[in-house]
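hiii so um. not sure if this is the right channel but i have a protein structure encoded as tokens and i wanna go backwards to a sequence. like what aa goes where. can anyone help
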């Protein structure tokens, strides 16, 4: 390749590859392709920085840990020789000529007399062998692939900085390097080659010619140093994830890829928990003004994350991170209010014990600080010693383990007022400490560690998936982890086979709900197959359509009603139905509804014991079920959790026996206990717990015959979600019944029976592009289906008219209602040609769809059709 070296500096692009990216031949081919592409398409010079093959650095560390045992050192060195020889063979290289000298060096280190006392320079030199080996292999292989590249010794360019305060250990094994040194820069820039490859992690020791290594995150930092020294066009960190995300995708599958960040934000995210980049590798590029890209070796064409100084400043929460293993030390002053020097004394103790304080919260009488997790803390009794010292000046309490949950983003301060829902989410838990950084980039809450996992998805949904902190989406967020993931084969919904019929139906007018009765029956049969359940009822608040009620009655289900009107609807559709198949479970209903319900002979549930006193004649001599609040709630959204102190439903468990006694005094028999703790639940443990708690008071009442554990079974709205595990549910209930066989077990789900059976058919009214956001408008919105606006609920949205066309640009799907919240779905990949008149189907809308629809804006209610 003929290439004249241009005179300016930033024609370099630095590519860094980690262990797993250099451990397979195919990965080296990817590296070669990327090098060529950068050179050809961008007329760039390319420097590749590599880590050791995966596992090698750990193996070297193990040698150091067992340094006393020289025979074993030799054996371990041989194992490493084998490993690299194997790799050389995989790459089609002759082992001896390529690696012979490196193997000799490794073997020599294994018998080096310095190993006996694990001298630090020996340790550093040994640790460096991994990168020396991998880089040598890489250069040899890429040359056979026709790339004329040079092997650079990183130690010629990166020199460790003398750090007078650093320990001896750190001066050899965790060094920082000079990345602004004009000498190194000149030497590097004078190099004529177009392609070069060098080692991450290693540098020249500050005190001479020896080798030093960089410590954790070392290779990324090396790449950043080289980027800064070369004044590169950019540094690309190639790794095994697509970039930085708005939360840890393992905890939050809806976490969004962060397309563009500025250095300060990236630093904050890296420092507060994300593991993608080591926090220390950002500084060199930041100071030299070199952009950093994070890219995925498995998916080289994905855009990844770009970090640069030019990222537009947009206010809002960009990421939520969590650090576990946080220890809080709370210090209560004893009558020392306003005492001069108190804080100085306190912090003096931390210094004495070598503990660094991270977050601080203080009031007049209390100072609470957090300590970052460190080996020191776990492996020694430093905390005890600290407390002993502190107790001389204040009252001390250690709170651990905690997790620090940090919201990262610019301009948080101006947006605090929008955090009400977030604070409500935290409010249910105990927040030990809140801290807002003065750079207005982070807001941190410290909670019990056990709570963190549960809070993250909620916070993410509130802050990032919803509009709580609107950010110019396209500039900041890329696709979600879920969207990027390898999709599991999607479940086939009934409507896929009914497309033609549905389009025909839509021809009669839209919006229209269509309900597929075979699906309703199938779900009813699944419920009836639950062996532990003695009676199943349908909660018709989900969908009271007469055809559905008839179909479910025919399947043998009873009905659960929350209003007299629902009870009347059942009798109207099913005249002559045995009233004992109907449960009336009102909430703050008028007295008249209780009277009418008793008169109709249905089972009546009471959830407010005060009514027994207030309306004794209503209940006298009747049979009654008591609704109990078992003390906790659950569900897909705050608004549908119906247990616990915040919820209006049910009497507390410990008041139930007394309520039953009041009932008895009126000659009223309490024959049932009931609880419904929420809606959209997937974890069957909840019902077991409910059953157990109710059963625990049932005995004391003495007249209870049945326990109704409510509804709440979740359905998989998202294509990748797992369906509810009926078998596990049955097994769990059976387990409980075996303990309390004396009670009949009743359930009353709504959603499970009808949600998937219903679709909402709509038509596209118009489409629009506004400032980078694509919108598809439908003739139905929150007026027809309120769930997305009210709960941020996710419903599948499909263009039936273009079912076979490929997914298009992400679009926000909106309705015709005069509210910004009138959004049915965000980032939906409707085909690009989607246009006026197309029939669009909203999936899984059979439950809480039409019943919650309104005539808002005086739009007509959707029509309803039944499919047999
Ligand atoms: N039993 C009682 C006492 C209930 O309050 C409910 C629902 C059910 C049974 C049935 O719950 P299901 O199995 O359908 O989850 N509009 C919300 C759901 C509200 C549920 C109210 N109570 C939504 O669209 O998600």
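sure thing!! here u go:
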């Amino acid at each position: 390749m003929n290439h004249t070296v241009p005179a300016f500096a930033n024609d370099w692009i630095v590519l860094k590859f980690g262990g797993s990216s250099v451990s397979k031949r195919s990965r080296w081919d990817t590296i070669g392709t990327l090098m060529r592409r950068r050179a050809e398409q961008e007329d760039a010079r390319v420097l590749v920085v590599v880590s050791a093959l995966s596992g090698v650095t750990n193996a070297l560390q193990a040698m150091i840990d067992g340094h006393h045992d020289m025979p074993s050192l030799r054996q371990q060195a041989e194992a490493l020789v084998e490993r690299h020889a194997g790799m050389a063979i995989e790459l089609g290289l002759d082992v001896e000529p390529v690696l012979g000298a490196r193997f000799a060096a490794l073997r020599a280190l294994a018998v080096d007399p310095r190993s006996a006392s694990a001298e630090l320079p020996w340790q550093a030199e040994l640790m460096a062998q991994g990168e020396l080996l991998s880089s040598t292999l890489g250069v040899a292989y890429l040359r056979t692939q026709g790339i004329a590249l040079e092997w650079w010794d990183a130690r010629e360019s990166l020199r460790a900085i003398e750090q007078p305060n650093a320990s001896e250990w750190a001066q050899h094994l965790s060094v920082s390097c000079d990345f602004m040194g004009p000498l190194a820069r000149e030497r590097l820039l004078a190099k004529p080659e177009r392609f070069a490859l060098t080692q991450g992690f290693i540098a020249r020791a500050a005190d001479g010619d020896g080798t030093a290594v960089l410590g954790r995150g070392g290779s990324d930092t090396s790449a950043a140093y080289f980027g800064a020294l070369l004044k590169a066009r950019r540094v690309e960190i190639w790794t095994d994830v697509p970039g930085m995300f708005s939360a840890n995708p393992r905890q939050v599958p809806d976490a969004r890829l962060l397309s563009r960040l500025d250095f300060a934000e990236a630093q904050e995210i890296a420092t507060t928990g994300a593991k993608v980049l080591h926090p220390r590798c950002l500084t060199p590029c930041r100071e030299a003004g070199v952009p950093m890209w994070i890219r995925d070796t498995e998916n080289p064409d994905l855009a990844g994350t770009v970090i640069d100084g030019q990222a537009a400043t947009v206010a809002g929460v960009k990421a939520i991170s969590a650090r576990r293993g946080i220890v809080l030390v709370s210090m209560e002053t004893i009558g020392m209010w306003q005492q001069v020097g108190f804080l100085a004394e306190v912090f003096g103790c931390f210094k004495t014990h070598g503990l660094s304080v991270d977050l601080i919260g203080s009031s007049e009488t209390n100072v609470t600080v957090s300590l970052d997790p460190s080996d020191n803390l776990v492996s020694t009794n430093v905390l005890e010693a600290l407390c002993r010292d502190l107790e001389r000046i204040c009252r001390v309490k250690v709170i651990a383990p905690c997790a620090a949950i940090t919201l990262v983003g610019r301009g948080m301060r101006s947006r605090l007022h929008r955090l009400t829902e977030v604070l409500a989410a935290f409010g249910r838990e105990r927040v030990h400490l809140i801290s807002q950084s003065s750079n207005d980039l982070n807001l941190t809450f410290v909670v019990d560690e056990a709570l963190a996992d549960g809070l993250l998805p909620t916070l993410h949904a509130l802050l990032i998936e919803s509009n709580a902190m609107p950010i110019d989406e396209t500039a900041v967020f890329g696709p979600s982890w879920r969207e990027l993931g390898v999709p599991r084969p999607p479940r086939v919904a009934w409507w896929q086979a009914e497309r033609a019929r549905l389009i025909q139906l839509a021809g009669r007018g839209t919006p229209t709900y269509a309900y597929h009765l075979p699906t309703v029956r199938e779900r009813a049969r699944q419920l009836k197959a639950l062996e532990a359940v003695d009676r199943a009822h349908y909660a018709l608040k989900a969908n009271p359509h007469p055809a559905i009620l008839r179909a479910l009655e025919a399947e043998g289900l009873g009905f659960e009603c929350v209003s007299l009107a629902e009870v009347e609807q059942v009798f109207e559709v099913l005249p002559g139905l045995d009233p004992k198949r109907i449960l009336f479970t009102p909430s703050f209903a008028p007295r008249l509804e209780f009277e009418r319900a008793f008169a109709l002979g249905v089972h009546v549930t009471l959830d407010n014991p005060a009514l027994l006193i207030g309306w004794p004649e209503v209940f006298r001599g009747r049979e009654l079920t008591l609704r109990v609040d078992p003390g906790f709630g659950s569900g897909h959204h705050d608004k549908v959790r119906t247990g616990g102190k915040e919820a209006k439903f049910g009497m507390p468990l410990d008041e139930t026996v007394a309520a039953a006694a009041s009932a008895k005094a009126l000659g009223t028999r309490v024959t049932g206990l009931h609880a419904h703790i929420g809606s959209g639940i997937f974890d069957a443990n909840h019902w077991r717990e409910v059953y157990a708690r109710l059963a625990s008071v049932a005995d004391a009442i003495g007249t209870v015959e049945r326990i109704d554990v409510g509804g709440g079974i979740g359905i998989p709205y998202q294509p990748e979600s797992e369906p509810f595990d009926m078998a596990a549910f049955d097994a769990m209930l059976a387990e409980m019944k075996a303990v309390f066989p004396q009670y009949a077990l009743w359930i009353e789900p709504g959603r499970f029976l009808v949600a998937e059976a219903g679709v909402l058919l709509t038509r596209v009214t118009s489409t629009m592009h506004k400032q980078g956001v694509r919108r598809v408008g439908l003739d139905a919105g929150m007026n027809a289906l309120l769930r997305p606006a009210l709960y941020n609920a996710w419903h599948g949205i499909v263009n039936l008219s273009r079912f076979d066309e490929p997914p298009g640009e992400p679009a926000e799907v909106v309705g015709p209602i005069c509210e910004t919240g009138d959004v049915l779905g965000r980032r939906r990949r409707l085909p690009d040609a989607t246009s006026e008149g197309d029939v669009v189907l909203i999936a899984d809308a059979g439950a809480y769809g039409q019943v919650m629809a309104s005539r808002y804006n005086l739009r007509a209610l959707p029509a309803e059709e039944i499919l047999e």
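oh and Confidence is low (pLDDT under 50) at residues 1-8.
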